[in-house]
Write a structure and sequence with these properties.
The chain has 152 residues and is α+β, with helices and mostly antiparallel strands. The chain is built from 3 helices and 7 strands. It has helices at 2-31, 80-87, 117-120; strands spanning 38-41, 46-52, 56-62, 65-70, 74-78, 140-141, 144-145. The strands form 2 sheets. A 5-stranded antiparallel beta sheet has the order 4-3-2-1-5. The termini are far apart. It is a single-pass membrane protein. This is Preprotein translocase subunit YajC. Keywords: Cell membrane, Membrane, Protein transport, Translocation, Transmembrane, Transmembrane helix, Transport.
Length: 152
C-alpha cells in the first residue's frame, strides 16, 4: 500500500526537477543575449536585439522598426550563421549537409497552377427572371409591392 505512494512522490520529484532544469537553461540563454544578437521569439518572429533592460528587450523586427518584448518572450538566441541563413537567405556553408539550390518556394503561385481558358471566363452572378415572371410586373400582395414595408 505504501509502495504506489512512494513511486508517485518519486515521479513528481523527477518531473519538477527536469522542469526547473529547463527553466534555468532558458534563463541562462536569455542572459547570453547581447545587442546585435539574432533571436527568435516564442511566436516565431526573427529579430535583432537592440537594447536589453531588466525585464524587457528591444528588438529590431525590420530595418528601422523597433518593438519592446518581455525577456521571457525570447524563444532562442541564434548564432550569426543560423540567423543570416534564415533571415537573409544566405547559402549554407560548403561543409554543411544542407544544400540550397534555386528558390525553395516560388515568389507567386502562377507556376503552380495550369492556365485554363475556362478560368478566364467570369461567372455570371446576375439574377435571372424565371420565364413565367419575365414579362409580368411585380405582384401586389396585401396592397404592397415586393420590397415595400410598413416602416415610416
Amino acid at each position: 500500500m505504501l509502495l504506489p505512494f512512494i513511486v508517485l512522490i518519486g515521479a513528481m520529484f523527477l518531473m519538477t526537477r527536469s522542469a526547473k532544469k529547463k527553466q534555468a537553461q532558458a534563463v541562462e540563454m536569455r542572459n547570453q543575449m547581447q545587442p546585435g544578437s539574432g533571436v527568435r521569439t516564442i511566436g516565431g518572429m526573427y529579430a535583432t536585439v537592440k537594447e536589453i533592460g531588466d525585464d524587457t528587450v528591444t528588438l529590431e523586427v525590420a530595418p528601422g522598426v523597433h518593438a519592446v518584448y518581455a525577456k521571457n518572450a525570447i524563444g532562442a538566441v541564434l548564432s550569426d550563421e543560423e540567423y543570416n541563413r534564415i533571415v537573409h537567405g544566405d547559402e549554407a556553408d560548403a561543409d554543411s549537409d544542407i544544400k540550397i539550390t534555386g528558390d525553395a518556394v516560388p515568389d507567386d503561385v502562377s507556376s503552380l497552377t495550369e492556365k485554363d481558358d475556362a478560368s478566364d471566363a467570369k461567372a455570371d452572378l446576375t439574377k435571372k427572371a424565371e420565364p413565367a415572371e419575365a414579362g409580368a410586373e411585380a405582384e401586389v400582395k396585401d396592397g404592397k409591392a415586393d420590397g415595400d414595408t410598413d416602416a415610416k
